[in-house]
Amino acid sequence: MRLDPWTLWVIVTMVAVLAAVAMNIAWLASPRERSLAYWSLGVLTQVLGLVGILLRGSLPEFWVILFANALLFVSYSLLRIAIRQFAGLPLKWHQMLYAPVLWAVLCSFPAFVESLPARISVFSLLSAALLALGVLDLERVKGHGGIGRWGMRCTLGFTVALHLVRAVLMWGADSVHGAPIISSSAAAWFGLTGMSGLLLASFMLLLMVRERSELQLRRAAQVDELTSLPNRRGFQEQAIAACHAGGVIAVVLLDIDHFKQINDRHGHATGDHVLRIFGQVLHASALGRGAIGRMGGEEFAALLKGLDLATARARAEQFRAAFRDESTRLKPGEAGARLMATVSIGIARARLEPTTCPVTAQTRLDLLLSRADAALYAAKAAGRDRVEAAETEIVERPS
Known about the structure:
Strand content: 5-15%
Number of helices: 13
Shape: elongated
Order of helices and strands: HHHHHHHHHEHHEEHEHE
Number of strands: 5
Helix content: 55-70%
Strand order of the largest sheet: 2-3-1-4-5
Structural class: alpha+beta
C-alpha cells in the first residue's frame, strides 16, 4: 500500500507527539534531571513546527515558511541545550536566536522565499549545523561512556548526514515557485526518517541518564561518607586491579591508636573529626598517590606500586608525623584535655608477576593484607605510633 504525502506527514507529527509525551513523562518521573525537561520542550516545539507545516494550506504561505521553520530551528537549539545541561556546560540561551533570526532575514528577500530548493538547502544546512554542535557538546561529557552516549552520537551523526545530503541534492535543483513541500513524497519520507531519528535520540538520552545514575550509585557504594575516601569495596577493586597487573606492590595498613578512648573521652563528634582529618592528611600525603581507602572503623589502607621497602617506609613515616601534628590542632572542648592522635602502620611488600586469573589476584591481595596486618600488630605491640615493614615472598603454583 502506497501512502500519500499528507498521510506520511500526519504520521511524522504523531511520532513527534509520542516522543514529546514520552519525554515529558520521563521528566516528571525524574524532575531533577533538567536535561529531560529541555529535551521534551525541544520535541514539543518540533511538534508545533510540524503542525504549522500541516496547516500550510489554511494559513498564509509566507508566515508558515517563516514561523514553522523558525520553530524547528528553536527545537534543534533546545535539543542542544539539553545535551549541554547533561554535560554540565553553560547554557547559552542567546544562541537559540541565531538560526531563527538568520532565517527571518533571508525570508525578507522575495527571491529566497520563492525558491523552494534554496529554502530547503539553507534549512538543511542550518539544521545540520545545530545538530553537529550538539554532537560536539556530547563529546565534552566527562566521566560517562556507555551505550547511550555511543547511540546518541551515532543517531545525531546520522541526522546531520541526512540533512547534508538533502542540502546537496536540493542545491542544484531548479527553482520551483510555490511548490508546497507538503505534497512531496520524498520530503515526507525524509521527515519521517528524521523524526524516527529524533525518537531514537530521545531513547538514547534516557539511556544516558540511566547509565549516569547507575554509575553515581556504584561510586556512592564505593565511597566512605565520613572521610570521602574509597570504602573497603572501592579500595579492593583498585587493589585487585594492581595485583592483576603485577610488579612491585606495597600494601600499607594504618590504624589510629586508642581510637575508642578518643571517643569515650572527647565524644563521638571529636572522633568523627579525627577520622575526617586522617582522611584529608592521607589523601594529601605521598601514600595518597596510590590506591587508598577506609577499611572500616579506624583502620585505613594504601597500596603503592614500584617502590622499594625503604621508600615505602619513609612515606609512611612522613604520614605518621603529619597526622600526629595535624591532630594537635583539634580543640575537643573547654573541659577536654589536649588531644594528640597517633597512628600505627604495617607494610607488606612483594614482587608479583602479571596474571589474568581473578582468583589469583584476590589471593595475592588477601595475603598482602594479612602480612601487612601482622606488621601492624607488631607496631602496636612495640608501643604504637610507629611503622613496621616486612618483605613478603609470594610463591604461586603454575596455573
